Every structure is written in C-alpha cells, then in structure tokens.
Amino acid sequence: MSHIIILETLHKAGYEGYIVGGAVRDKIMGLTPKDIDIATNAKPLEVMELFPKVLPTGIKFGTVTVMIDDEGFEVTTFRADGNYSDGRRPEEVFFSETILDDLSRRDFTINALAEDMNGKIIDIFGGVSDMENKIIRAVGNPMERFKEDALRILRAFRFSARYGFEIEPITLEAIKEAKEGILLISAERIREELTKILMTDNVQKTFSLMYETGILKLILPEIAKLYGKEQNHPYHIYDIFEHTMKAIESSVKEPIVRWSLLLHDIGKPIVKETVDGVDRFHGHNVQSVTISENILKRLKFSNSFIEEVLELILHHDIQIEATPRAVRRLKSKLNSTQIETLLKVKEADIKAQNPEFLDRLDTLSEILELSTLEPPISVKDLAINGYDVMELGYQGKEIGQVLNTLLELILENPELNTKDSLLKFIPRKTFH
C-alpha cells in the first residue's frame, strides 16, 4: 500500500513515521479510512528531499503532501501548538521530536491514536478503551481543548452522532461551560459540521443534546424554538421538534433532502392558530421559506443549494393527485428541484406523522411512477416560440402572456403540442 512506502522511506532515512488520527480510529472500528495522514519527526524540507513529488500544501504548519502514484498523503511534522488567543487557531506551531506531544494536541481520545509501520498501536490516552465503551472523551483537560478551538464542541456532537457514542460527563460539562466560544467559529465550518451530523442515524438524539447544552440556541436558534411546541392535529402525534427530527431520520441521506426537512416546519410556531381545539398552521410553508432563507444565507450555502431547499420547503405539503395532468402541472411549476426529490421530502414528512395516515404513501408511489412517464413541459417545450407569436401581431409582454396561455392548454392536452394546432388557438391581431 502507498502509505507503507512513505513510512518505510522515512524509517530508512532514520526518521519516525506513524499513521495518525481518524485513519487509525476507523481501522480499529473495522471501517475503511477515507484519508490516511502521517506524522513524523522529519521537518517539512527533510520530507521533501526524500520523495520525488511533494506539494507544500501547509508548510507553515509543518504539512506537505507526498504524491505516490497520483495519490496524495499529508505528512506532518510532530507538533506542539502554542496559545490559542482567538478560540480557532494557534498563534504559533512548534515542531516536536516526540509522538507524545503530537497526540497530546488532538481533540478526543479516539483521535489521539497512532500506528507504526509494523501495525503497533500507540494509545497514550485510552482511545481504544473509549471506543470499546462507546465514549467521546476530550484529551487531557476538556476546557482547555474547547478554548483552543471551539469547533471541537460540534466535532464532539458529530462523532457522537456518527458512531452512536455517548459524550463523557466531564467533557459534556465542559461543552456547556465553553459553549459561547462557538460564536467565534466561521459560518462555513459550522455548516459543514451540521451537515455531517444530519447525514447520520442519530439526528434526534444529537440535536436534543445540543438543545440541552445550549449549543443549538447559539447556532440555530430558530430550530431551538421548535422544542416542545405542540401540534394538536389529527395528522400529528409528535411536537414540531420531534416531528422534524423523525422526518430527517426517515429520509434518504442526501444533504438537500435533510436540510429541507430540518427547516420545512420552522415557520409553524409563528402562524399557529387553534380552532375548536385543533391546531392549524395555514401558510407555514411560506413563513418557513422566509426564515430558512435567512438561515441558509447566514451559513453561507451556495445560491443553487438555497434555491432548491426553498422550493422544496414551499411545496413540501402540496396536495398532488396521482394523475398525468397533475404530475405535468407540478413538473412545470418546479424550477430548481426535481419532482423525485420533492417526493423524497414528502415521504419522510408523512412517515414522521400519525401512522394511521400512512396510506398517503401509496399515492406518492403512484406519482413517482407517473413522473417517469411524463416529460417536463415548460414554455421552451412548446411547438411554437416568441417569433411565431410576433408574426401574429403581438408585442412585448403580450408575447409572454400568449405563450403562458398555450402552456396551460398543453399541460391539460399535451397531444395538441404541434405548431399547426397551437396557431389555431392564437387570434391574429389586426391594427386599424
């Protein structure tokens, strides 16, 4: 394997070399590591002299990328970090001679592991034991770890969610005390950690714990406001927060779907009305779109991602008949997303409601089947265009109005989409 070549080359040159961090953790847990990082006592320039192709990707922090057969491996000199004055990054990085110093600066014990070229595990802080006991524990003093980099707070929740581990009590207490540091973290880093949490099987448990520790109120106050909000309605047996979490866990693991479900009912508390003992939430989809747009922009999502999520939220509770005509109409209405994605959101939403009404899922299956047969129809698919309409005497906005009228006709009667047929429906304008 390529990384073994790097370890052997370092060893032959008189240096130490270890696989470190997540790769060792995942290997012990029987998972396939995504990235293999290597730590060594060789300085960056010394590493660069040993291999024919090396990229100075983070040389300021002691990291270079060694290329072996077009595959890149980060090789980092043993480090001991200086002071963290801003709660995000060290002011200085000191190179060290020992793997102990390097592992001491890691965030959690399950990540403070190293493996030498012979497969021997270096476990100074009890990471293997914590894995066996399914525990997330900070290395050393947890308050110091979180003050150094407050993003570690969200990483604790992410690892807990990914592996189904409990956060050790002292570490959890430190999270509560250090939580304000999360306000120093960039929106992009928060967004990435939240997305990774949403992609796990333990969303409800993790978001509930983030609420209880006060973290959720700091990073997603709009979601925190859903906690405990009842919805007394025949379709619902859970409060808004519980319903939201169960909908996410019932859905496919696609970021666009899970973010849409996280935000789909966020406007309900604002529009809630109780009539004859039954809660009504008329227009909550529109309210949810407004709130969600602010959240997604705050977290620096791309414009295309925002547009698709907002469209999914807007239409998540739309009533669709399982007919070709209704499917054609819906397809023509959607601009940023596919009907198949919308059906994934609707399916998860229904699964998180009252199980007595799960028969609605049958309708979604029929609609999905129809959607594969019905091609999308928009103005650009019409058999005539704006120039054809202009030749009949129409100008400016009139052209668009005529084309939209024809689109309505074709959505009802797609067999009429020929140039000769459509021209018969357009009265020629005459000028006096």
Please characterize this protein's 3D structure:
This protein has helices at residues 2-12, 22-28, 44-50, 99-104, 127-132, 142-148, 151-163, 169-178, 187-198, 203-213, 215-219, 221-224, 240-249, 255-263, 268-271, 284-298, 303-315, 324-333, 339-351, 360-371, 386-390, 397-412, 419-423, and strands at 17-20, 37-40, 54-58, 63-68, 71-77, 79-81, 93-95, 113-115, 121-123, 135-136, 166-167, 273-275, 278-280. With 432 residues, it is of the alpha+beta class. A hairpin with a 5-residue loop joins strand 8 (113-115) and strand 9 (121-123). Helix 13 packs across helix 19, helix 14 crosses helix 17 and helix 14 packs across helix 19. It is globular and about 90 Å long.
> How would you describe the shape?
globular
Quick one: how many beta strands?
13
Oligomerization state of this entry? single chain
Number of helical regions: 23
Round the mean pLDDT to the nearest integer and report it. 92
Low-confidence stretches: none
N- to C-terminal distance = 84 Å
Q: Which structural class do you get from the secondary structure elements?
A: alpha+beta
**Biggest sheet character:** 7 strands, mixed
